[in-house]
């Protein structure tokens, strides 16, 4: 028997075995993963919780400003200058996932699990500030002495040292963690930040630009696939780059004019901008509405910006921060909210809480 005949016979035998009931189930399961899902109506999508649920920002003022919080599905980007509050907002999301999960367990009248509301945190800019996370958790639920520990135990932290690490963690390690039922349900994936490694490893040459775009599309495709399969959002932070031509004037709540965007735009260019579903921009200004200067080279930023603001001025309202919606498929792009950083985390500020000089009132 020749190799060709053996191959044909083996193929024929395999096809015969796959024609039985068990084989049909295997082919059906494989087809479900490899080919598009069957068509469904808009009402089916409307009833699908993973497409309609919102993720709380951990502050009722911010949640109200953005119609319930962040989308609970897809890729959500939070960009801004250094010190704008991006990482602080990510830490607050980690705390809020545990609060929401434990509230769900209590409503269901089950005993609160030892660890609930797991989150996946991929860091590309150094270790997660665990002390600050514990401080925020303890200040958020001071009546529960064990809450801070449960928050710390709920976060699965991985660090990427280069772009290849980042791709491996998203395509290999994260799917395994999501499928591991013993770890508990992962409700949120955070990448802080998306652009840090790309900006350091790729040049402006045509070859590097094409390779970078290919890597970005691969990561974005994986995030969207996992978001759809497991019903969770990917919230990623992003750095900004100068865009002097894009600085336009807008009107904030109350009629105070500000420069929208501060002459910056999210990093990674058009390739990445086509991959995100929702985009927010964070910015900060001092009491005189001036953009802060960049930190001195070699200086270390404070681990707790709220403490640093209070230490330098005697109050926590030195910086007036803004969170603005730039892109959303379901919300108007003019939504925005002021906020301050406190020991307990990020707190939104209503117009009625502002002093005449534009500073948020002390609580």
UniProtKB/TrEMBL annotation:
Gene Ontology BP annotations: double-strand break repair via synthesis-dependent strand annealing; resolution of mitotic recombination intermediates; t-circle formation; telomere maintenance via recombination
GO MF terms, alphabetically ordered: ATP binding; ATP-dependent DNA damage sensor activity; four-way junction DNA binding
Family matches, as InterPro entries: DNA_recomb/repair_RecA-like, P-loop_NTPase, Rad51_C, RecA_ATP-bd
Record keyword Protease present: no
Native source species: Nannochloropsis gaditana
Keyword entries, A-Z: ATP-binding, Nucleotide-binding
Bias (Low complexity) ranges: 1-16
Keyword Nucleotide-binding: yes
GO cellular component terms attached to this protein's record: Rad51C-XRCC3 complex; replication fork
UniProt cross-references to PROSITE patterns, sorted A to Z: RECA_2
Lineage of the organism: Eukaryota, Sar, Stramenopiles, Ochrophyta, Eustigmatophyceae
Start and end residues of each RecA family profile domain: 51-240
Annotated region described as Disordered, given as residue ranges: 1-22, 291-314
Record-given protein name: Dna repair protein xrcc3
Bias-annotated ranges (Pro residues): 294-304
């Amino acid at each position: 028997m020749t190799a060709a005949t053996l191959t044909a016979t083996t193929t024929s035998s395999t096809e015969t075995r796959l024609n039985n009931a068990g084989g049909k189930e295997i082919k059906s399961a494989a087809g479900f993963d490899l080919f598009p899902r069957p068509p469904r109506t808009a009402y089916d999508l409307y009833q699908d919780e993973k497409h309609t649920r919102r993720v709380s920002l951990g502050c009722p003022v911010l949640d109200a400003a953005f119609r319930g919080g962040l989308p609970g599905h897809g890729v959500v980007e939070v960009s801004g200058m250094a010190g704008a509050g991006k990482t602080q907002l990510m830490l607050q999301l980690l705390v809020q996932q545990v609060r929401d999960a434990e509230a769900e367990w209590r409503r269901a009248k089950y005993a609160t699990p030892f660890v609930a509301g797991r989150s996946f945190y991929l860091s590309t800019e150094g270790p997660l500030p665990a002390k600050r996370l514990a401080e925020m958790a303890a200040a958020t639920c001071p009546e529960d002495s064990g809450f801070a520990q449960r928050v710390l135990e709920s976060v699965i932290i991985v660090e990427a040292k280069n772009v290849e690490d980042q791709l491996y963690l998203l395509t290999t390690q994260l799917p395994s963690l999501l499928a591991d039922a013993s770890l508990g349900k992962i409700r949120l994936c955070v990448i802080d930040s998306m652009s840090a490694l790309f900006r350091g490893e790729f040049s402006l040459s045509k070859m590097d630009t094409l390779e970078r775009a290919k890597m970005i599309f691969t990561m974005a495709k994986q995030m969207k696939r996992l978001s759809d399969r497991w019903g969770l959002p990917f919230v990623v932070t992003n750095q900004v780059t100068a865009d002097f031509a894009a600085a336009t004037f807008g009107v904030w709540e109350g009629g105070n004019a500000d420069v929208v965007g501060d002459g910056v735009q999210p990093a990674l260019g058009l390739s990445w901008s086509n991959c995100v579903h929702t985009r927010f921009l964070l910015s900060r200004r001092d009491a005189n509405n001036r953009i802060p200067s960049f930190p001195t080279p070699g200086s270390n930023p404070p681990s707790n910006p709220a403490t640093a603001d209070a230490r330098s001025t005697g109050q926590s309202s030195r910086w007036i921060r803004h969170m603005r919606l730039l892109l959303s498929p379901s919300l108007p792009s003019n939504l925005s909210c002021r906020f301050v950083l406190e020991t307990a985390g990020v707190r939104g500020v209503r117009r009625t809480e502002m002093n005449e000089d534009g500073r948020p009132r002390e609580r």
